[in-house]
């Protein structure tokens, strides 16, 4: 399999965590979202993913799967062990609710496209853009804090789909200097995940295309 990814993309980060948790070998193909107008906009990549987003997972058969939720569901169905979703349907729904809250309600509002639109098309100054990001991430994480449990990870002692979504979102929150002190459960998950080999392997800083922070 080949994963077209960008080191700092939170949706790519999710998929990298899931692949590592499932011990699946994959070739990483970096797609730089900012260089030369964005490599995701090149015709060759648009032929692979018409939306021009990352990640894209290319299976050994040549089939391309786009959108991180679809990729994660594919991995869970095609490689069910270790499971990232619980067996009980109610518990599965609880995990999926946290994943959807992060993937559908928080992440899209600070993605590269909406932020570029705020800055360029609407001409909003950087303090306002920062306020927008902090508001939506903070509001969403407040709900997540109330929805997850008190175990090591979001829903128990082992990592699952909710953690796959939450940890990259926390990386983004820290990138944007969003205060996290009011979320003790979330910070507990972050601490535990930081010691887990799959989460360390998937971390943006450990990717082949990682870039040093700007001075």
Automatic annotation (TrEMBL):
Report the InterPro entries cross-referenced here: Glutathione-S-Trfase_C-like, Glutathione-S-Trfase_C_sf, Glutathione_S-Trfase, Glutathione_S-Trfase_N, GST_Zeta, GST_Zeta_C, GST_Zeta_N, Thioredoxin-like_sf
Which EC class does it fall in? isomerase
Q: Name one GO molecular function term.
A: maleylacetoacetate isomerase activity
What is the species of this protein? Bosea minatitlanensis
Q: Which PROSITE patterns match?
A: GST_CTER, GST_NTER
List each copy of the GST N-terminal domain by range: 1-83
Q: Which family does it belong to?
A: Belongs to the GST superfamily. Zeta family.
Q: Which Pfam families match?
A: GST_C_2, GST_N_3
Tell me its EC number(s), please.
5.2.1.2
Protein name (record):
Maleylacetoacetate isomerase
- Entry's NCBIfam families? maiA (TIGR01262)
* Key words, A-Z: Isomerase
Q: Which PANTHER family match?
A: GLUTATHIONE S-TRANSFERASE YFCF, MALEYLACETOACETATE ISOMERASE
Q: State the CDD domains in the record.
A: GST_C_Zeta, GST_N_Zeta
Q: Taking every annotated instance into account, which residue ranges of this chain make up the domain GST C-terminal?
A: 88-212
